[in-house]
Every structure is written in C-alpha cells, then in structure tokens.
Amino acid sequence: SATFVLALCFFFEPHWETNDDVGMSMVAHGYGITTVGMPNLIFSNVVWGYLVRAIPQINGVWGYSIATIGMLVVIGTIVLHALRKLGLGWFVSLAVLMLVLVRPVLFPQFTINAGLLTVAAIICWHLYGRQVSRQALFAGCILAFCGYLVRSQEFLLVLLIALPLLPWAKLAKEHIAQACALALLLAIAGAAFIDYQAYQGDDWQTFNALNPARAPITDFGADAQLKHHPEILARHGYTENDINLIRSWFFVDPEIANPESLNVMLAELGPLPAQSNALNNGWIGIKTFVHPVLLPGFLAALFLLLLIPNRKTFVAWALCLAAIFALGMLGRPGIIRVYIPVLFLLLIAPLLAQGSGLRAQGFLRQRLVQGAIVVAVFFNTTAVFSESRAAQLASEQIREELRDFPDEPVVVWGATFPFEAVYPVLRKFDSTPTYRLYSLGAFTHAPFSLAYAEQAAGRGMIDRLTSQSGIPIVANEQRFDLLTIYCKERLGGVLQELAIQKYGQVDVSWRRCETKVTQ
Asked: How confident is the model over 81-95, as pLDDT tens digits?
C-alpha cells in the first residue's frame, strides 16, 4: 500500500481536489490566508488539528499533507488485508486498491478521507465478526474515530449506510465488543466537547453567530427562496444584491452579514425542504451517481449487487439512495466528494455480506466479479491519470505566472485565485509563496485569518475600498458587478478601477468606491 501511494506521488503531482484542504493546511500552519497557525480547522475536529500540527515536517512538507497521504496508506493496507482474507487473489486485490486510492491520492480531499477511514473501520469490524480478532476490532474503532475527527458528517453518512453490514450478533453477546463500542462513543463525545470549547473564546463570537445564519444561504439554496419574497427583504432593509453578496461569501460589511437579521428572515421564509424545488434537488442527488467521475465505480457496484444478491446489501443500497435523496432535498445535491467513499462501500458490500467472500461463489461468478472490478479500474485510472497530468501542467504554468504577485494583502473573492495550483499537496514549505491573501469566505471572521487581523488594525476591506488608494482585489466580473451595486446602494458611491495587473489568468484590480468623502 505504501509503495503504491509513494509511486503515485513520484510519477504524478498530487493536486488538492478543493480549496478547503488548502485553507485548513494554512490554518494549521499559519500561511497564506492566515497570520498564525491554530488547531481550529473549522471543518475538521480541533483534536485532528492538534494531531496535524504535532506532525513534524518531512523533507519540508507540511504536517497536514503528511497526515492526508498517510491516512490513505493506512486505508490501502486495511483494504488489501481484508480482500486477501475474503478470498480474492493478489491481482484483483491490487486492482481494487487502485480503484479505491488513485483519485484520493492524486486529488486528495478531507471528506473523501473521512469516508474511506470509516469504510476501513467497517471492514475491520466485519473481519472481527467473522473471526475472533481483537486487533481488527480495536483497529476499526481507531479508524472510525479518525474518520469522525476528519469530517464528522461524512463519518455519520457512511456509518448509516453500513448499518446492515455491521456484526450485530457479536456486538450483542461479546463484552469486549460492547466495551469498544462504548469507548468509541465516549471518545467521540469527548472530541465533540473539546471542539465545542475551542470556539468559545470572545474572539470567536462574531464567527459563531454568523456561521449558522449564513449556511442556509451559502450552502442550502435559501438565497433563491428569499429573492422570491421581496417583501421579507424590504421589511428588514435588504436588497436582492445584499442576498447575492451573502451567497457569494461577502461577510465584511456587518450591516449585511448581520446574523440577527438573517435568522429572522430565514424564520419567516420557513423550512427549506418545504420549498418547491426540494424534490427536484433530491432527484439531482440520485442522478449524480452517473457522473463521469463516479460512473465506473457505480456500474461495478451495481453489477456486483445483481451478481451476488444479498439482503444486507440491498438494505445498504436502499439506505444509500434514501440518504442521498434527503441530502438533495436539504439543498446539497450532487457533491461528488461525498459519493466516492459511499460507492466504495457499496462496491465491497456484496463481498462483505458473503460469509466467505468469493470462495463461496462458483468459478464463473468469481471471474465475472474480477472482470467487473478490472474494467472499472481501467476506465477510472485512465481518466484520473489524464486529469492529473493536465492539472500538473496547468499548475506549473500558473505558479510561473504568479511569480511576481504582490506581497501586500490582496483581497481574494471567489474561486478566481488558483489555491490548489499555487499550493500543491507535497510542495516544500520553504518554497511556498509568501502571498498575503485577504480571503472572503467562511474564515473571514475567524481569529487566525488575515482578514480578521486587517479589520482589527483598521485596514478592513470596506475601509480600504473607500480610501484614496483603494484596494487590490482578485475576483470575476460577476462579483465586481455585485460590488458596483453595493458601492451605489450601501455607500452612495461609484466603483472605479484605478489600475489592473495581469498575472496570466489572474487579474489583480485596484478598486475604489468613489464617494463624496473620497472626492
């Protein structure tokens, strides 16, 4: 497993799947959008943040990257061991390893890691259920706890779908299994309490108030529903552009990013699942299974379901479809990274549900199972390798173009700054660009962020936007259009472009809101 992961990293350049991991690495180690390193990773448990920060640099690579890749090695080890125990030969076992790890290694993402850690835990518990192996039981609990720390929501989703596959008989009658289950629950409760306490300081109050108030708008589609009710907006002094700004993660104006006003408007709007597009979103979630990224694994899992029918597997599929549909109804349809661990669970579920794996199947059925896996591996690996090569070439060009990027704080708004290209997974920290990025997003009011420090020093975005010198911003035209309307509606001015510098595909535009004061 380690050899396979290291070989992938040697021949290819791992590229973060989303900028979430880049942001959490910055939070943990104090660079880029942050001014100081902290364990408060926001999206992962603070205990995981402490563990990541405790990992020493290896050849100049940050601890967050080492933890990400290291967990994939562990997951691969568990998968190989389990498949060999289930009766698969080395060829097919390695093929499954490739199917599981190629994308997570070359395009790592913490939600995927959390789900795969949970799947690995379920595999360990299955092995414990088949044979008296306390090591498998303990390993499963540790992996499950790590999955919870990395991303609790994905951990709970995978665990829910896997309920029919758990060894309930042994859990009911063996005290050691019950003790481990209790220990796992207590560890999760303890980690949840530690995480809660880590955000109770005075400097976290603004963040804590705004985060749950903005989530329905930024994550669950409440912005569209609010704009269908202009009377609600008018009653609270909001315009359609204000809602568009919130939807675009513009939290620097406290009059717009006002949690009290947002909560009242959302309460008047009513529960989002009751809105008219909820069922359509649920169906979008189901249709995402045939996305090109997921299709090879989905078809292989479906083929194994039909080839090796089992009641437990059918129940797992039913739970999966119900959960995915419910997520869509809640406003989160089609999030690819959520599906990848779920699909792997469904792929291996027919083998887990069979008491002795492929050994219980006839020769023809064994060959059909192996053939389905190999075909899925071929199409998946070909696509991922091609995607990785393209991402590597694009990243190298982007880093060269940004060589002379300004070293002063630059506002980064939206997905216009190529975080994933500028900060590769295994890039040495001493060669990481010393850019100072005033990021507009979930971390705007977090105490570790550059945005928080600049605001506290009287150099916040709005202050600089209305100053004579203006402020450098990286954004797309859509967001500049929102800023133009904001300048007119909220500041009574006209947005002017003072200068622009081009760094390849990244444009840094100096903007100023021309008001009577600046005139």
From this structure: 988 887 777 888 899
